[in-house]
Design brief:
It contains two helices and ten strands; from the N terminus they run αββαββββββββ. It is of the alpha+beta class. It folds into two domains: 34 residues; 131 residues, Immunoglobulin-like. The strands form three sheets. Strands 1, 4, 9 and 10 form a four-stranded mixed sheet that branches. The longest helix has 30 residues.
């Protein structure tokens, strides 16, 4: 027979092993449930966002719509020389979203939500530009045309300015596009 002392020693050994296992399980659960703790929050994507709304029934045929992009210009008014210089200067003063090689399309959508990442600054002319031809060197033919712009709330015939700061993204920069009735062309 086992002595009482041996039995107590055996029970204590089992309890200690059980307690070690329990502590290990609790530590694993605590470590698994911890998030980043005091890590800094993820960076805020600066720029602006909104929705581009398309007038129903105004979409052109696919062959006349190579691309569709949003632009933001720090300068207004624009002419052809200023637009070219603004796109290709260093640093640029005109920005295109998503890029000159990408497009916002799908065709015939009612609306498209977007988020345009930009550095802080004042953008005086924001709009949607239609690329009509893939040949950017076409002479005598306009390759791009503005089909809608963000409007000044006080004067809907004029572009509205957007100030992008270093602390938040500007929301609700909505643009109405009517392919059949584009605004006056700035360039």
């Amino acid at each position: 027979m086992m002595s009482a002392l041996h039995l107590v020693n055996r029970i204590c050994t089992i309890l200690v092993s059980f307690m070690k296992l329990l502590v290990l399980i609790i530590l694993c659960l605590l470590l698994a449930s911890c998030d980043a703790g005091l890590a800094p929050p993820p960076p805020i994507e600066l720029g602006f966002s909104g929705t581009v709304y398309f007038t129903p029934g105004s979409w052109p045929s696919r062959d006349s719509l190579v691309g569709l992009m949003i632009f933001a210009s720090e300068i207004y008014p624009l002419d052809s020389a200023m637009a070219f210089a603004g796109l290709f200067s260093d640093p640029p003063t005109i920005f295109v979203y998503p890029s000159m090689s990408e497009s916002l399309l799908p065709f015939s959508a009612d609306s498209i939500s977007y988020s345009f990442p930009l550095r802080s600054g004042t953008y005086k002319y924001i709009g949607v530009v239609q690329q009509i031809s893939s040949d950017l060197k076409t002479r005598g033919m306009r390759v791009f045309r503005v089909v809608g712009f963000y409007k000044d709330a006080a004067d809907l015939s004029q572009p509205g300015s957007v100030v992008v700061n270093d602390s938040s993204q500007v929301k609700e920069i909505n643009i109405q596009v009517d392919f059949r009735n584009p605004p006056p062309q700035p360039f």
